[in-house]
């Protein structure tokens, strides 16, 4: 009601709107979110905040605009918590908000007094806005509607899903594919959605979800589809080594473009629709869309070309390849302008921002990279996916970035806060784990076979620790910062001297990936959790195994000692288990609704802070 009454203010009402809009959330924002949660309406809160932002000129009222932006970030981050336990917004919601969050600052007094020690959190909101979950297979393609209100995703699970970008809610599921959906694309007017699968292309009505047409003609799997700028043509690339052009009104095949000697992974129209670029056999080919004649062949990649994209200003063509590079070409001359290198594996997808200033790329190395198209410099590396990132797309206004991955999620990123503070470069493979020292002066980063120690103030590399035989999946500093423990995919834990970089101990015993490590408060014990479903306790001085704690029926993803060191908590198969560290006896089991990826005892030890909420010593989840 508060929002709806202010959607269309008159000029005379504007000052009242501004006054109320500032006063109400400053006093009652959390109460409002709580009430909406209890009514089952929390999913609409983000959209309501968007509505309010449209009547708030940010240049005239920056304080209100900043508050609303922060409020939306808070709601998106905590929507699931609010749905399940509304009062948790005062506990988990606030204490896990970034230090500089406006909501956290204004409502800090609402944090329950029984929380003795607050967890370490980020200084600012990260670039990741939301993870959209629902697909049961890899997400192979994502695309925004022209008005930015919808996001389409195509998956290995044979479905297309339509999402509301304001609320992140699922709007429709389009089913009728007999195979993986490799590509999705909206028509320029947003009325149609094309999906490529098996040997066919399907055209859907985006309003009703009804199938309009099925385009048949390819002899093998359709890998990519895209509409021409005027919407009259649809181009498709296929495993049959051809590009086909279709009339979208009638569904008839107009042209078949032949010449590639490999799978056609990507196609893209130029902004004026006169040219079509196709990527395949280490080459990019440019075709005249009116005649179907080949205009130019661009050579330079040493691997298959997986993605091509024209810049909106028509000056550049970007291509991403299995040779791990992105190349920028002058579209007029066909000459290579720049080669962009940072990814450690195949480049799966490339896309330009609406103003042509940024290029985004995604890769099998599980990262998304943002590049300056003028200088070719890497602006930001976005991490969060746990699988190949198959597809990326900018929203029409450039404010959102979507990425789809084999981890079965779509992630939405805020491009406005992709602000790079420092780039720490030296790893030759993906960074799989990180940890800060207790005093914050060192950052440890784990990668394939190595750990690196960095000075956080200067960004300088301090030490390179070699010895692991595989990727380093978990790390922790000892309480005094003198030791670093690292757990590996190759089932070992290693203890390092942080001042000299010398290996102190190799702890053998696990027979699978070591996902979590933690030191006891006095530094004498180290706990390790593994995919072998066990927790092990080690003597850090001698490296001797003290206890093997068995009982979990799945990977142990997180471990933490109580402040007095007498208890160890471990998170795994929708349970948390509490163990006596002296005897190894199981003390308690708490059932939870999800995976415990992180856990930490509060200072007094009376409650446990996790990624799913806060639990008290009474064995039930606290609701605030």
From TrEMBL:
CDD domains assigned: WD40
WD repeats: 132-173, 174-214, 215-256, 257-297, 298-339, 340-381, 382-414, 424-464, 465-506, 507-548, 549-580
Superkingdom, natural source: Eukaryota
InterPro entries the record matches: Quinoprotein_ADH-like_sf, WD40/YVTN_repeat-like_dom_sf, WD40_PAC1, WD40_repeat_CS, WD40_repeat_dom_sf, WD40_rpt, WDR55/POC1
Protein transport is among the record's keywords: no
Repeat keyword on record: yes
One Pfam short name: WD40
PROSITE patterns the UniProt entry points to: WD_REPEATS_1, WD_REPEATS_2, WD_REPEATS_REGION
Keywords: Repeat, WD repeat
Official protein name in the record: Uncharacterized protein
